[in-house]
Amino acid sequence: MYVDYRSVIVGVLALVIFVYGGLRQLYLAKNVDTLEREGKIPADMAARIRRKPMKLIGWTLVCVGIGFFVQSLFTKLS
Q1: Number of compact structural domains in the chain
Q2: Does any domain span residue 78?
Q3: Average pLDDT, stretch 50-70?
Q4: Which of 2, 14, 46, 65 is the most exposed place for a label (fewest CB within 10 A)?
Q5: Cut 0.85: pTM above it
Q6: How far is CA 56 from CA 23, 51, 65, in A?
Q7: Does residue 16 sit within a domain?
Q8: In a domain, 46, yes or no
Q9: Which band of pLDDT confidence, cut at 50, 70 and 90, is reported for residue 5?
Q10: Among candidate residues 5, 62, 51, the one with its CA nearest the CA of residue 29
Q11: Confidence of residue 72 (pLDDT cuts 50, 70, 90)
């Protein structure tokens, strides 16, 4: 069985990037009040974070990353 390592490396890279972005969005959604209170994010940014569906965006990014990784396992680069 032939494994195209370039494709797998690209998939792992996509997985890491998208999962990092997704987990960051989930962290912001969960801790927006604490971050605003501590002065780490301004009030206008906190208001924008509260308006957006951050949990949905976060989980979507995680799923997209997993999808890219799974696709890379079955794809051959020429």
Answers
A1: 1
A2: no
A3: 92
A4: 2
A5: no
A6: 11, 12, 14
A7: yes
A8: no
A9: confident
A10: 51
A11: confident
